[in-house]
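Students often ask why we bother predicting the structure of a whole assembly rather than each chain alone. The short answer is interfaces. A chain on its own may look different once its partners are present, and contacts between molecules only exist in the joint model. In this exercise we take two input lines together and write out one structure for the complete complex. Read the inputs first and try to guess which parts will touch.
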Amino acid sequence: DADVTQTPRNRITKTGKRIMLECSQTKGHDRMYWYRQDPGLGLQLIYYSFDVKDINKGEISDGYSVSRQAQAKFSLSLESAIPNQTALYFCATSDATGGNEQFFGPGTRLTVL
Amino acid sequence: QQQVKQSPQSLIVQKGGISIINCAYENTAFDYFPWYQQFPGKGPALLIAIRPDVSEKKEGRFTISFNKSAKQFSLHIMDSQPGDSATYFCAAYNYGQNFVFGPGTRLSVLP
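Now the answer. The structure tokens for the assembled complex follow.
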């Protein structure tokens, strides 16, 4: 079984709709991240959380919000989706004590029409 | 200062050749430099990483060369194979902050 799972894997939605992307992990890591990937831009950090009570904005948080429901779950919401939020979204985890490696989920491809 | 530059954007190499991808950074506080490999439809996965106290790290066919004074580091893939065809991201990190990723290099290894 995958250590970091994301649902849905693909989603097509319309402008103005609210959408939630979910991430779950079985690695027992405290730290979780949401990234956005666009061609030629690499991975850009949206939000990150170092524990259940800690939420921090990344470099491109405008238009997004997150919820850390438990150590293992970290959700990303688009309150009112717009076409330029069409991208590939990745969740990642890392262990604060076990080194710096980030473990990525398989990604969610989001299309906003 | 947080930006990590990466080149080339794409690279085509013959099987058995050497693939070289270069990255440069500005922030001297970075102290961990990983390379991630991403196959289509998958999330990135750690390939190899280096800290600035060494100038080179080798794992199998993959080598990181690190030049602290020039603030540059590179990934060398020796004897490149078609299975190495993927997108490669360099990154930089320091404790208390977060990872900064380069824009990626799409590598194609021709059979």
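Check your guess against this: The mean pLDDT of chain A is 93.
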